[in-house]
Amino acid sequence: MVTKKDIIGAREAIKDKVHYTPVFHSTILSKQCGYNLYMKAENLQKTGSFKIRGATNRLTNALNEGSLPGVITASSGNHGQAVAYVAQKAKVPCTVVMPENAPQAKIDAAKNYGAEIIFCGTTSQERLDKAQKLANEKGHLYIPPYDHPHIIAGQGTIGLEILEQVSDVQAVLVPIGGGGLLSGIVTAIKESAPQVKVYGVEPQFSNSMYISLQEGKITARDTIDTIADGLRSKQPGDLTFPIVKKYVDDILLVTDEEIIKTMKLIMQYQKLVVEPSGATATAAVLFNKLPSKYKTVTSIISGGNIDFSRLASLITQ
Ligand SMILES: *Cc1c(COP(=O)(O)O)cnc(C)c1O
Fold first, then answer.
1. For position 250, what pLDDT does the model report?
2. Which of 21, 47, 49 to mutate to test the pocket of ligand 1 (most atoms within 8 A of CB)?
3. 178 CB less than 6 Å from ligand 1?
4. Could you tell me which residues come within 8 angstroms of residue 52 by beta carbon, excluding any fewer than 6 positions away?
5. Cα of 174 to ligand 1 centre, how many Å?
6. pLDDT computed for residue 122 by the predictor
7. In this predicted model, what pLDDT tens digit does every residue of 60-105 receive, in sequence order?
8. DSSP string of 163-188, one letter each residue
9. Are 297 and 252 in contact (CB under 8 A)?
């Protein structure tokens, strides 16, 4: 299990390489929802999402253990961008395995960060197998998106920052994909200030953490349907699930419509560009999913990577 000590270690390892992101208070949105609402702006993080925290911690620890011929990831989304960025900074070659039908924007983003791109199949399993096979053959390090102690500890650094920035916080809301972000943050908070409530938030039709907690064991969803592309995990991770099970107060569910409305509200009043996954936790506050009336709450805006054409079509819906 990851502990607060690991998260403090991660903070030391990444402190000169990632932003200490701001927390914004919104008077209008607070009035609207009845909570004193703060938002932790990881959309303003380097590479546009929090994923760089875990990726930096993983790479820094690996480099401390010895030289590294290269790193590999199977994600073309925010995690892939984060890995490519930190590898380039550390002058370590990076390979990103992408689906044969990857959109040009994602191919270009990875190339811009100096990554070599290998195309393989169309399913995430094919890419994962390919990445792990390449890693074994070449002696490169495979960096997973959430299920590793260094990744979890890196994401957990956000929890330490929130406790410093919002000293009277009573509840923290975190979006869930594979659960790396939530398991890190909930560990940091429950092992520092156990009275603070921590809620995970999932899209209604991508709710494998919710289902798994109900079943008491890791349980997959066969069909995933959400616009929040960073939250389309079929099941929680082997490492993240037990942490979430131990510490989280509850899982809240939101609809895609609520996510889109929240993207618009954050843009209109906070002037922040947010991707659908990044608006999910705030949607749970604005659409009244919290089970009690807290005074002060903080939601994580986890990322802001969205291309203009998609943003335009979502906000004019
Ligand atoms: C990856 C990601 C998430 C989910 O994080 P997990 O650690 O997989 O739970 C949420 N929001 C954004 C923007 C992401 O990129």
1. 98
2. 49
3. yes
4. 17, 18, 45, 46, 82, 85, 86
5. 9
6. 86
7. 999 999 989 999 999 878 999 999 999 999 999 999 999 898 888 8
8. HHH-TT--EEEEE-SSSHHHHHHHHH
9. no
Q: Check residue 132 and give its pLDDT.
A: 94
Half-sphere exposure of 122 (CA within 13 A, CB side): 2
What is the C-alpha separation between 27 and 169, in angstroms, rounded?
Answer: 16
**85 and 106 Cβ atoms separated by less than 8 Å:** no
pLDDT along the chain (317 residues), means of 10: 97 98 98 97 97 98 94 91 96 94 84 94 89 95 97 98 98 98 98 98 98 98 94 95 98 98 97 97 98 95 93 90
Write the secondary structure of 195-223 as one string of H (helix), E (strand) and C (coil): CCEEEEEEECCCCHHHHHHHHCCCCCCCC
Q: Which two tokens stand for residue 83?
A: 């890995």
Q: Which of 154, 187, 143 is nearest to 9 (CA)?
A: 154
Which residues, other chains included, contact 179 with Cβ-Cβ below 8 Å and sequence gap of 6+?
A: 146, 200, 209, 233, 236, 237, 240, 241, 243, 244
Confidence (pTM):
0.97
Tokens of 198: 């921590």
Nearest-CA residue for atom 5 of ligand 1: 177
Atom of ligand 1 minimally distant from the CA of 43 = 13
Q: What is the pLDDT of residue 281?
A: 98
Give residue 101's identity as a one-letter amino acid code: N
Atom of ligand 1 nearest to the CA of 277: 11
Alpha carbon nearest to ligand 1 atom 14, residue:
230
Domains and CATH numbers, the chain: 4-49+148-315 (3.40.50.1100), 51-142 (3.40.50.1100)
Q: Which residues contact 67 (CB under 8 A, 6 or more apart)?
A: none
What the block records as the tokens of 314 is 């979502």
Pairing relationship of beta strands 94-98 and 171-175 according to DSSP bridges: unpaired
